[in-house]
Write a structure and sequence with these properties.
heterodimer, A: 107 residues, mainly beta, seven-stranded mixed β-sheet, four-stranded antiparallel β-sheet, 0% helix, globular, B: 116 residues
Chain lengths: 107, 116
């Protein structure tokens, strides 16, 4: 099973600033990596797939990078609706599909 | 527009059974692998099970293998999860998700409570 590890667990930033979230895989997942945003009381929403491709309707301030075992989600010009929990997920070698434990982005 | 609507959650005693359903619309259901993902309140996401578009291949997390059965009815655009021998640790919100490169669309979830 591929273990996904996200850091930090909590990231405190201010609106308008930039946030950088990290995700590490225990073995290479190539570019088979997705990022999700989950707001309180809502289902997760796909932000990024293929490590760097934005999903339909996702604003350009969200960007993903990396390949192999190291990945980054960058959110520029943070807006109030961006404060949420973010998960990375690998779909390179499944089953099982595995998620990171999440990063809480807070003000 | 893709729409996924789960149903069937509720309160069940340990050892009991529940059958979850997910009604899909807005896309060609039979063309997509579908999955169930669960989330314990306040915790992270856990993939539970997946099924290919034809229904011919199924996948399970080790934690549910032998107890849960995923199935689909492509004529009714519906996904199911039969959950038997439920444990307290199965208590969670269960989401169905359209699966391709990642989970592109999610339902709103249905809550399963396992308690005596």
């Amino acid at each position: 099973e591929i273990v996904m590890t996200q850091s930090p667990a909590t990231l405190s930033v201010s609106p308008g600033e930039r946030a950088t979230l990290s995700c590490r895989a225990s073995q290479s997942v190539s570019s088979n990596l997705a990022w999700y945003q989950q707001r309180p009381g809502q289902a997760p929403r796909l932000l990024i797939y293929g490590a760097s491709t934005r999903a339909t309707g996702i604003p350009a301030r969200f960007s993903g990078s990396g390949s192999g075992t190291e990945f980054t989600l960058t959110i520029t010009s943070l807006q109030s609706e961006d404060f949420a929990v973010y998960y990375c997920q690998q779909y390179h070698n499944w089953p099982p599909i595995t998620f990171g434990q999440g990063t809480r982005l807070e003000i | 527009e893709v729409h996924l609507l789960e149903s069937g959650g509720g309160l069940v005693q340990p050892g009991g059974s529940l059958r979850l359903s997910c009604s899909a619309s807005g896309f060609i259901f039979s063309s997509y692998t579908m999955s169930w993902v669960r989330q314990v309140p306040g915790k992270g996401l856990e993939w539970v099970s997946g099924i290919t578009g034809s229904g011919g291949i199924t996948y399970y997390a080790e934690s549910v293998k032998g107890r849960f059965t995923i199935s689909r009815d492509n004529s009714q655009n519906t996904l199911h999860l039969q959950m038997n021998s439920l444990r307290v640790e199965d208590m969670a919100t269960y989401f169905c998700a359209k699966t391709r490169v990642g989970f592109s669309d999610w339902g709103q979830g249905t809550m399963v409570t396992v308690a005596s």
